[in-house]
């Protein structure tokens, strides 16, 4: 393919060309085509094994430079992948710790509410289930304050329902 000006059709340069390689057609290359430098580059581009690439890179310095650069890029990608996976794992672990700590705080507050309410007698099962089933820390903090100030179980239930 030549590069020409569209209007004047003047050739820009005879030192530049564009070639399209159909890598899927490499196996159909003629013996003459297989001797060409372009064929060697096409083989290198389509190689899927590092050992094959390294062996091909022995052909000339430009192929060696291309393989060396590919190794660097892939090593950096692998390092970046491992770094991101480590970061993800650490983030997931922190999220789990925060979640579990929050659950533990909620459980502790719920149990404290029930302990205060037990001062008034046996806590009805429905109320016990509601308190233990609550996981919102702010709600449990408010209920703990209600339980500490309540004069009776009914007083607590009223405060709880009007929140």
Description of the molecule:
The chain is mainly α and 163 residues long. The protein is built from 7 helices and no strands. It has helices spanning 31-34, 37-46, 50-57, 61-117, 125-133, 137-149, 153-161. Helix 6 packs antiparallel against helix 7 (153-161). The longest helix has 57 residues, at 61-117.
Please give the count of helices. Answer: 7
Helical fraction equals: 55-70%
Head-to-tail CA distance between termini: 79 Å
Stretches with pLDDT under 50, minimum 5 residues? none
Quick recap of the structure?
This protein has 7 helices and no strands. By secondary structure, the chain is an all-alpha fold.
Key terms:
single chain, 163 residues, mainly alpha, 0% strand
Give the topology, please:
Blueprint (H helix, E strand, L loop, with lengths): L30 H4 L2 H10 L3 H8 L3 H57 L7 H9 L3 H13 L3 H9 L2
């Amino acid at each position: 393919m030549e590069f020409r000006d569209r209007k004047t059709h003047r050739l820009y340069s005879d030192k530049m060309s564009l070639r399209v390689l159909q890598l899927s057609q490499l196996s159909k290359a003629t013996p003459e085509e297989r001797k060409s430098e372009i064929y060697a580059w096409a083989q290198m581009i389509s190689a899927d094994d590092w050992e094959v690439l390294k062996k091909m890179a022995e052909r000339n310095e430009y192929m060696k430079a291309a393989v060396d650069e590919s190794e660097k890029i892939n090593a950096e990608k692998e390092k970046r992948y491992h770094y991101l996976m480590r970061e993800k794992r650490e983030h997931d672990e922190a999220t789990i710790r925060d979640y579990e700590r929050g659950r533990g705080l909620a459980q502790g507050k719920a149990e404290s509410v029930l302990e205060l309410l037990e001062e008034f007698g046996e806590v009805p099962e429905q109320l016990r289930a509601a308190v233990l089933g609550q996981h919102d820390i702010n709600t449990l903090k408010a209920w703990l304050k209600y339980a500490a100030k309540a004069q009776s179980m009914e007083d607590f239930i009223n405060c709880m329902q009007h929140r």
